[in-house]
Write a structure and sequence with these properties.
8 strands, 8-stranded mixed sheet, single chain, alpha+beta
Amino acid sequence: MKEKVKELLRSYLEIFPEEHERQKILLNYLETATNENITDWNNFNGHLVAGGFIYSKNDQKFLVLYHKELKMYLYPGGHIDRDDLTPLEAALREIKEETSLSDLTQLTLTNNPLLPFDIDTHIIPYNEYRKLPEHYHFDIRYLFTTDSTDNISIDKEEASNYKWIDIKELEKDPNYGKIVTKIKKLIK
């Protein structure tokens, strides 16, 4: 997985060279991490996660889930497991587990579906419930469309609610506002 992610990051930075500084922590991490510990949930230097923004073309809204532990609305996604062959496979698995959605169409930057439209590094705060220390999530993000806005069945262990929000609300969210320009280009 490590080599696949390094290659994805190289390709990603060819498209978005202005993000080299933004990707420095991940670049450094991939130089020192082992293939085994990049997907190890107990590696508190950080680990890989993947997810997908889901856009309803019919309603022109995005799906977000209320995460019980983080107490905020997030797009579906989660940890990349050792059994996942690619970050895209992990994102699709997580989306299906968390929402039951499987009829998705991916919107891509290039003809390579493995290439995400965004890669983000963020700190996950100390988890009081699980007693887990603060650590990095290296988040590989994809964008999908769906027509199935009524067939959502959320994983009640992780999320307590869901809603569909428009692009303006997504843009106001400090976690996602900076990627709305990319999203707008892809959904046109």
